[in-house]
Amino acid sequence: MTNSLSSEVLARKPQRPLSLYSPKISICLLVTCVTLFVLFQIQSLPTALSPPASAPSSSTWNSLQKWKSMIISTALTLKNCTDQLDSLDSKLRESVTFLPLKDLRYAHAAQEGHTWFMSSMYDTNKKGEVQYQQFPSNSSKGRLLCIKGHDSHDGAWNSYALAWPEALPRNATLMKGLTFISNSHYNHDNLWHGLSAMVPFVAWRIKNECATPSRWILYHWGELRYKMGSWLKNLMEATYSGTINIQSFEGFGDDEPVCFEKAVVMRHDEGGMSGENIMQVYDLIRCKARLYCNVGWEDNIKGRIGMTLFMRTGARSFRNESEVVRIFTEECRKVEGCQIMVAHSDNLTFCEQVSVYSSLKQLKKILI
Ligand SMILES: *[C@@H]1O[C@H](CO)[C@@H](O)[C@H](O)[C@H]1NC(C)=O
Ligand SMILES: *[C@@H]1O[C@H](CO)[C@@H](O)[C@H](O)[C@H]1NC(C)=O
Ligand SMILES: *[C@@H]1O[C@H](CO)[C@@H](O)[C@H](O)[C@H]1NC(C)=O
Ligand SMILES: *[C@@H]1O[C@H](CO)[C@@H](O)[C@H](O)[C@H]1NC(C)=O
Ligand SMILES: *[C@@H]1O[C@H](CO)[C@@H](O)[C@H](O)[C@H]1NC(C)=O
């Protein structure tokens, strides 16, 4: 499954935004054509008319000359205008300034306030709500977010900038649709840290008519990451009802800027969210996971307490698992209606885990 997914995940390189220029070009062409046509008409007039020597026609001749010079000067002014626009446009493009994604000046406060990731930007900050940045927005003055570089070892080598859609930096590629950009201080592989990095995106989605991203870009300290843990990926695929496309920037040079039609940036995990808002997100995720795995809500017998011990393997596993199970089983026996289950998350599929959480009956099927 991973293989078939990863081939879909490879981002196709989108078209360069050539079309941005076309309205101006067509106006220029139109103006030039009309001017040339009028000039040609006037040029041909004097020869067609009687010679300027005859007295009655001399006033006509003069006014014609006046018109001619007026039109020429208007044409010149127009030409000047478009030249100046072009030069301004070019200056705007050149003035887009890229700053390092990871700002080492704030290494001592890497997670506080504006953090060291995109340190010149501030998040929206409504009490109890998710903290995020959105581009374009009023606070970006309508500018899009652009990024450059895809270093996966040092975030200071990757950079970001804001640019107006009409004046994207030279050679920039515009990526259409919605892009989610996540910077995690921990990582996107770990269940817990990965999940807390995803919570704000789900919160944002609830508030934004369930908008679905066209792609995700993952950073750890500004360093690019190309995958999230498979559990987390499953969970997000369930939540967003579709495959998660993680941008790999294949085929892009380090100097080639990429700009996003619409981008949402998160760098604070659940920071700032009220307990109520976090619960709302978890409720949605739970609901979506059950739908995805086709797991019902049955088996909620009154007075029963289900206790599930999820065991880990590796460095953080219990040193004596059987002893831990024995102690919990003993405690569970003391409480009426208590039932204890033990599962190893490593050897359950994603949907088996969802079943374990949802129904005690199904758990027995899995464990026996
Ligand atoms: C066009 O602009 C130049 C300076 O850029 C100026 O010297 C010239 O007078 C302008 N011409 C007209 C017709 O406005
Ligand atoms: C952005 O600014 C415009 C005009 O000032 C205003 O009408 C609009 O509501 C603002 N949008 C947001 C999201 O604040
Ligand atoms: C843009 O791309 C062209 C051709 O690929 C290259 O010659 C030029 O140097 C690039 N310009 C910038 C500013 O990177
Ligand atoms: C686990 O603890 C029990 C009881 O204390 C003991 O009998 C058993 O040998 C221990 N197992 C390991 C692998 O240490
Ligand atoms: C699950 O994994 C644990 C530890 O890796 C192993 O001891 C156990 O036998 C496995 N259980 C099943 C049902 O495969």
From TrEMBL:
Q: Which domain of life is it from?
A: Eukaryota
- The UniProt record lists the keyword Membrane: yes
Q: Which UniProt keywords apply?
A: Membrane, Transmembrane, Transmembrane helix
- Name the Gene Ontology molecular function terms of this record: glycosyltransferase activity
**Membrane-spanning residues where?**
21-42
Protein name (record): Glycosyltransferase AER
Provenance organism: Heracleum sosnowskyi
